[in-house]
Amino acid sequence: MTIAVLLIPLLLPCAAPLLARRSLGHRSPVVALWTLTASALLLAAGTVAALGTLALTGLFKIPAFASVGELVHPLRTPSVRLVLPLAALAAGLLALGALALGRSVVRQATALRTARSEAGRRPPAGDLCVVESPRPDAYALPGRPHRIVVTTAMLRSLDAREREALFAHERAHNAGGHHYFLSAAELAAHCHPALRPVRAAIRLAAERAADEAAATAVGDRRLTARAIARAALAAHATDTARPVVTPAATTSPVPQRVAALLSPAARPRRATSWVAALLAVCAFASCATAATVAVRVHQDIEVAQGETGR
């Protein structure tokens, strides 16, 4: 029964992509960003806890590990023929996920270090750092101090008012700490394949939040939409080496973002509120189920160690 319950935190993330897309529709971008990121992290935590519990259960069915764990009684589990293959699969998935995450961390850290080194070689104008490059690009560079990196090709692609809107967008990313949300989304996506579309939804929510902040800062939604559209068109054919955790106005579905800016701000619908609530329920259910089973397995291990009565 305990093994079957562990399937719940492994299956619940499969509902997240649909719920994430629905919750983005008419929610405040900032609220959607927090809701999606927190839910993705909880679902990822439930997945890792379930796989870890399953792998540990299988390990203690092997005599060598049982002796290391000082088990004096057999651990109460279903058939060994069922537990061992599932435990081996869980351990393999955890190892693959950890390896992929480690490679991603190294790659992103290297790219961030390179970007900050390149920005550091240019004299900044306030928080703005202009890089001589034929590739149109602009992005918010995290770290201390915050920087907005823009290439000379991007500056030539926009007029003065559009540049102001673009800079306001990137400043909103730094002010909102959106790189933390993108890093959390990247972490969650390596824990469960179903959370990869949620990573894209989190990036879209971060861009929408920056879009709205930029429109408020410049006082013109149409100007902001035009600046984002022109910047995206300029950077469309450009192959950038920018880290994925650095937010940029030219990423995410630009037509969808432009359409949202050209429309009046919509009020949240009751239906989408229920969608967000359902996503939160799935996330908490995943963690609660995994934690409950982990506690139950821990109690069974204590029994097998003879620390408590049967």
From TrEMBL:
Name of the protein this chain belongs to = M56 family peptidase
Which cofactors must be present for this protein to function? Zn(2+)
Which family does this protein fall into?
Answer: Belongs to the peptidase M48 family.
PANTHER family assigned to the protein according to its UniProt record, in alphabetical order: POSSIBLE SENSOR-TRANSDUCER PROTEIN BLAR, SLR0241 PROTEIN
From what organism does this protein derive?
Answer: Streptomyces kanamyceticus
Any idea which UniProt keywords this protein has? Answer: Hydrolase, Membrane, Metal-binding, Metalloprotease, Protease, Transmembrane, Transmembrane helix, Zinc
Q: Which InterPro entries match?
A: Beta-lactam_resp_regulator, Peptidase_M48
Q: Which domain of life is it from?
A: Bacteria
Instruction: Please name the GO terms of the biological process aspect recorded for this protein, alphabetically.
Output: proteolysis
Q: How is the cofactor bound?
A: Binds 1 zinc ion per subunit.
Q: What stretches pass through the bilayer?
A: 36-60, 80-101, 274-295
* GO MF annotation, one: metalloendopeptidase activity
